[in-house]
Write a structure and sequence with these properties.
The protein has about 300 residues and is of the alpha/beta class. The protein has ten helices and 15 strands. The N and C termini lie far apart (about 55 Å). One of its GO terms (cellular component) is cytoplasm.
Length: about 300
């Protein structure tokens, strides 16, 4: 049987990586491969790694994590040729269109799985009103078979209902599911089971038209800081909070002065950091701004962070 190919989409900070981390815990039945943009965004316990190569990590629980390289075709054709996979789940860039990878569902070796789009319950209404990014978010939602409302534990009931309504309007044919923060592993698996049962998804040219492509390069600007070693994570978290008005997203895996690795993220104006068991070969922090002054804004933010850390 060909592997079911599903797509994970959603705007910057919507919870895609958190969902993928849960799925790599082995909560889905069968053997799953997850394709990500960057290994650094995935918190894999070193004790779970059975083997690894430049682009692939195989885990002891049967899951596989593959990194999308510059040659997407090589990654996808290699997975399509494997006979030991039940499903493949592909993460789309936070400013990308899920249709960029959805066309692979018609490739020999794959069967068409669902498109699941994550939406931050606390931010989606504002994003859909934002003149610079709303069309990107609308395009992502328009092709969803299932919309997963994330971060519901940070929202009040009226906010959840508002987010549900806005997503229903933007994705009228999609199922709307709420992420269960109390049982995230089961919720992640349930979302994909529900998505797979939502009906036969459209493939390739049959996907709904979400309008003409927007110019992501003109709307978003990013910079990667790679020389943040042995830093004070509390100072960095405070400095990031002070730049929340300039940045739509910040995300990194960094090591503090005691040698402990941390995930640190800025999303919807909130900074979150937590320790992790291991880190990438090169620590890095990505800053992303949006709008007509995006390049200037992310540069000001970068300079402020360096000044706060005295770099």
């Amino acid at each position: 049987m060909p592997a079911e190919l599903g797509i994970i989409g959603g705007y910057l900070g919507s919870g895609k990586s958190t969902l993928i981390n849960r799925l790599l815990d082995g909560v889905l039945p069968g053997r799953t491969a997850v394709v990500v943009n960057d290994f650094g965004s995935v918190n894999i316990d070193s004790a779970l790694i059975a083997s690894s190569s430049q682009d692939t990590i195989e885990l002891t629980n049967g899951c596989i994590c593959c990194q999308i390289t510059d040659d997407v075709s090589r990654t996808m054709t290699a997975l399509a040729a494997r006979a030991d996979l039940d499903r493949v789940l592909c993460e789309v860039s936070g400013v990308g269109d899920p249709r960029q990878l959805a066309s692979w569902r018609a490739y020999p070796g794959f069967s068409a799985g669902p498109i699941l789009v994550c939406a931050d319950t606390t931010a989606i209404a504002g994003l859909l009103r934002n003149e610079y990014v709303s069309d990107t978010v609308e395009r992502q939602l328009a092709v969803a078979d299932v919309v997963l409302l994330t971060k519901t534990d940070l929202a009040i009931p009226p906010e959840i209902e508002s987010a549900r309504q806005r997503c229903s309007e933007a994705a009228p044919t999609a199922r709307i599911l709420l992420h269960d923060a109390a049982d995230p592993g089961t919720a992640a698996a349930a979302a994909f089971v529900a998505a797979s049962r939502s009906g036969s998804p459209a493939v390739g040219g049959d996907l709904p038209d979400a309008g003409s492509p927007d110019d992501h390069a003109a709307r978003h600007s990013s910079v990667t800081l790679r020389d943040l070693n042995g830093i004070d994570m509390s100072v960095l978290a405070t400095a990031l909070s002070e730049q929340a008005d300039r940045l739509v997203r910040a995300k990194g895996v960094l090591q503090d002065a005691q040698g402990v690795w941390h995930d640190i993220q800025l999303s919807a104006g909130r900074v979150d950091r937590r320790a992790r068991s291991a880190g990438p070969s090169t620590p890095a922090l990505v800053l992303i701004a949006a709008g007509p002054q995006a390049e200037d804004e992310r540069e000001v933010a970068a300079q402020a962070l360096r000044a706060a850390l005295r770099m």
